[in-house]
Amino acid sequence: MATAANSSSYKITWIDDVAGVKQAVKDLGREKEIAVDCEGMKLSREGTLDILSIATRHRDVYLIDIAKLGALAFEAGLKGLLESNSASKTKLLYDCRNDADALLHLYDVKLAGVLDLQLLEVIHRRNKGQRIEYLRGLKKSLGTYVNDWRMEIIKRKGIEEIEESKKKDVNIWAARPLSEDLKEYCAVDVAALFPLQQILKKRKDAGDMKIVLEGSERFADYFRSYEVLPMKEFIWNPFLPQKILLFSSSKSSTGPVEKCRGCRKEFSKTELKISILVQLAWLCGVCKKIELRAKDMTSMSKWLEESV
Asked: CB within 8 A of 248, min separation 6: which ones?
């Protein structure tokens, strides 16, 4: 059953039946852009996907109960919606990697047509001459660029519930009924992407947007393309992965190709560095930084020895 509630900022519709999904897909079909986010416990192929949040520029937010509906929700039209390319429908996300991984490996949905605002934020900093080595989280970006105190309060309340559930090892996203604070939290995570996009797109030329759109495709593939995920430190970290945003100033690398022993992505030999832990183990620039900052050197050394 679909139930609608008006908050101070958004119209939130909770959907937990197939008829509601079909109506939402019909409504969303009229939009050129939608904002998407997934929530779940350890969101990825190794966790759960319990809520799919979708918003429109008109501040309509649909919260779809995947914990209840499972594959039926995607069979009711969500799969086609999420797999459509950017020419027909652009999906705004903020760090799409875990969302794309969970959608593909749990529900056979290959997310496409993504404009990842985390990458657009990197371009924004680059154009201002700032460092782009690190990725910036959504909470920090909203505070820096959108600066809406109501959103900050909603995010804070939601984070408090989430952190408390982690202490108890409880999947808060599968609990029903979902608390109103968490519904508002889900709504902010998608509805806030539209004002954030508007700010970050200012003074970006067609070349910038092409870099971001192409990078977003690679970002969506980054986790989901693995048959088996690498050691988590090498992929779940705050660094911008190499070869996601390809700038015209970047030198094209040629020569023999080798797999990084950390993230297991392929690079030319000239892009790799030697490990300090394992003889003749090659690491990309990002994984080399992870190695140098590692707290558990024994586990990392064992991974590098076995990752061939």
From this structure: 207
Residue 188: C-alpha distances to residues 124, 146, 194, 274 (Å): 22, 12, 10, 43
Q: What is the DSSP letter of 146?
A: I
Kind of pairing between the strands at 51-55 and 60-65:
antiparallel
Phi, psi of 237 (to 5 degrees): -150, 170
Fill in the DSSP letter of residue 250. S
Tokens of 160: 């408090």
Report d(CA 51, CA 186) in Å as an integer. 9
What is the chain's percent helix, strand, coil content, to nearest 5? 45, 15, 35
Write out pLDDT tens, residues 18-28: 999 999 999 99
pLDDT tens track for 170-225 = 999 999 999 999 999 999 999 999 999 999 999 899 999 999 999 999 999 999 99
